Amino acid sequence: MSPTMIAPVVVEENNKYQKGVKHLCDNGLTKVPTKYIWPEPDRPIFTKSDKLTKPKQNLKLPIIDFNELLGPNRSHVLRTIAEACETYGFFQVVNHGMEGDVSRNMIEVCKKFFELPYEERSKYMTSDMSAPVRYGTSFNQNKDNVFCWRDFLKLYAHPLPDYLPYWPSSPSDFRSLAATYATETKEMFEMMVKAIMESLEIDSDDNEAAKELKEGSQMVVVNCYPPCPEPELTLGMPPHSDYGFLTLLLQDDVEGLQILYRDEWVTIDPIPGSFVINVGDHLEIFSNGRYKSVLHRVLVNSTKPRISVASLHSFPLTSVVKPSPKVIDEHNPSQYMDTDFATFLQYISTREPKWKNFLESRKIHHL
């Protein structure tokens, strides 16, 4: 085949993948396309010196009981939060008040959205990162050399009245259920910020950062991971840290989330109805490195679809993020350069966003 004939075939092949992995699966798939096959060392299980790497036992994250946080044992719970943020960068929250219909309805309506015909879902497909609604695939489909086994729906959610009219109108109850979910996760985030500040011994009532976070950005990201015929060859999401301050993650009952703990990938046991909360890059900067934004990734499986809903919260997009003055002094100088959203966008526009590369680029290396 001549080069002039090959080029259109390559373009058509790439266009097929741009439509998302759910579209591929709906049209029948028995093997993972080459576009989704990760290099051997990056796969979930790979051979090394002819030995199969054994999967580690699942990790049980520290559990924060919201009732306890709001009760007389608050100081003990705050110590647990501090230890979790320092050691794991993750913890799970139970008894948060959203265990019932709000969480269950959100998972169900998101499943229905991804079951819509491709033509309906694709109305929201755009490469504009500032779009109020963005449907897409992989991690960053415009930059990824190897694709991830994931489709997503991203919704800007604060201020909610500004963005709600742009959200999907199908399924018919999507907007109302997602709006309730976004509102209640925002309230939970604000209570968690107060706890985080206290755990850092910062007075949140007299703190400009806490006020900024209350008026800050919120993005709801719905992730869809269809069953994969060869899950050992690919990833649902690559190793990455979250850009914002805190992420509140709701999962269905299918495991898949892994974190890097003591240089090993370990799977997080999903607790029904719980939220997994993780430290983002902005909180690592704000705490001057005391709290860790930890690498995590997502595995897929061959039998069950998986849905997760992440609510990502941070400072307003126009804010400058820097270590809190309360955590730095002459003995503990600032470890990070000031940063903002424009710097982040500029960074990811020129390279694949992966690992903790952006955060590493903001570190100050003291002599």
TrEMBL record:
Signal sequence, start to end: none
Transmembrane domains' residue ranges: none
Record has Oxidoreductase as a keyword: yes
SUPFAM superfamilies in UniProt: Clavaminate synthase-like
Domain Fe2OG dioxygenase, residue spans: 216-319
Domain of life: Eukaryota
Alphabetic keyword roster: Iron, Metal-binding, Oxidoreductase
InterPro entries associated with the record: DIOX_N, IPNS-like_FE2OG_OXY, IPNS-like_sf, Oxoglu/Fe-dep_dioxygenase_dom, Plant_2OG-oxidoreductases
Database matches in PROSITE patterns: FE2OG_OXY (PS51471)
The family this protein is said to belong to: Belongs to the iron/ascorbate-dependent oxidoreductase family.
Name the record gives this protein: Fe2OG dioxygenase domain-containing protein
Organism name: Brassica cretica (Mustard)
